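## tool: complex_structure
## caller: assistant
## args:
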Amino acid sequence: MTLNLKTSLWKPVIYIVICFFSLASIYPLIWMGLNSLKNNEEIFSTNVYGLPTHFRIENYVNAVTQFNILSFFKNSAIVAVVTVIFTILMAVMFAYATARMRWRLSNIARIYGILGMFIPVQMIIIPLVIIVRDFHIQHSLLAIIIPYIAFNLSFTSMVFYAYLRSIPFEMEESAAIDGANIFTTFFRIILPLVSPAMATTAIFIFLNSWNELFTALVVISDNALKTLPLGLIYFQGQFATDWGASSAALTISSVPPIIMYLIFNRQVESALTVGSAVKG
Amino acid sequence: MHSFLNRKSAIFVFVFPFLALYTAIMAYPIFQVFVKSFYEWDGITSPIFSGLDNYRNMLKDSDFIPAVKNGLIFAAVILVYQQVVASILAFIFTSRNLKLRGSKFFKTSFFVPVVLSVTVVGQLWVQLFNYDHGLVNNLLGIFGDDFRQAFLSDPRKAIYAVAFTNGWQFMGMMFVFIYAAIKSIPEQYFEAAIIDGASPFTLHRKITLPMLQETYKFTLVMSITGGLKAFDNMFVMTGGGPGGSTMTLSYMMFKSAFQKGEFGYGCASAVVLLLECLLATLIINKFIARDRIVY
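## result:
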């Protein structure tokens, strides 16, 4: 009885607290979205908090036509998708070999492969720039795709390793009896079984590459190769005083990850949380 | 029986792409960083061995001490904001007999900033912190124009504003993390306490908090190493300024290698950065939560 009384008294306070922090988290983003449809005059004085009245699509038109925001967007999309595909392919094969195939150094190879999770990008960036230059890939998107794949390998293979260990070994035995070779077994039987882990790691890798700034900043110098996080910085340099246009650019680059989160909410939460947790 | 699981050629095909790329991009550079930190090197001409010169110069570098200090301030700000806010929210959402309406919506909203890039969040907060038109200053302006703050151009305030932005962005992640940790505490503990008449506050104080020791230790490591490594937020929001007041070790490394062309010195900064992260992790592991709680 006393317990209930206490909770009912506290309830309004608790609602105020959670509403406050919820607003603190999303209102700035809503503000950004609204600003993207206003001009400076409205943002600064005439219509500071309200909904946009004129729906100034020209902000988006400006962001697209006067500046190559679409090319940044395209680069980000290519980089993210290619990184996802190749990271998963290489990591799942490696995880398969260490989790289920029998060879002498398998355990050592697995541990060696996991250590990368503890290496911050800042540590390896200087030699990495030299490597990219030596391989003559600095003038193509490969200059960031290849490092991104490498950065994500450890975490991805660790997730697949845990997953593959839980699959019964009879899978391969029966496949072998049916006369399938290792590659058919792997692609036809094993890969479909690990698809839930693929979804989680794909989301993790996608968001990581979509949002990555540091490596792109250091490695990419051609304007045509810039990804969104990098391109936005140069956009800001030119449009800093035009809040409407810069909000439009920020909104364009936020839409894909937000949609992804709203659709795959649980997977995104677990992928990012676990991913950053093991990365430390 | 299934002999194909130890066929050498198949194993090679499965592990070679991973090991080759991983070794070239992750392992070899780590080795290189240590070696090159003992050289004077501009990244173009061949390096000249210079012993411990880079490390000695770093101690004399006027950026070094502020960089370490800023890393710790950054860590402290994100630690306080994220841990405190995320813990309070996680406690609320895991409280029994507190039927909250729309809890799914609230939980989702905390996480939205986490999925955005630091560039977007940083640029957005540059606008929010704007002296004349930013939301934060409009809010402070209610109390009078004297209350408006030049958050990002005041050398004493900039690091706090930049760190807060990061704390704000990743609070939702800490929330999910702590929330999941609380959810994994065995239900019987709470049931027993409820039978004994414990209030929600007592439950959290006597059961949840002690059970979360390991989680907190872990988030502490994350915040401190995150603060020492901080770079993106500064680069986007202040460019390390005003007057070097938001300089961090990562930024120092970036500046020396990629703006001044002192690659050897940059490598030495990277090594120091790694050592500091390791040191912080060791200290935390040694002094906090020494006796593990066994479930």
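## assistant note: Chain B touches chain A through 93 residues (CB under 8 Å). Residues 60-287 of chain B form a domain with the MetI-like fold fold (CATH 1.10.3720.10). Handing back to user.
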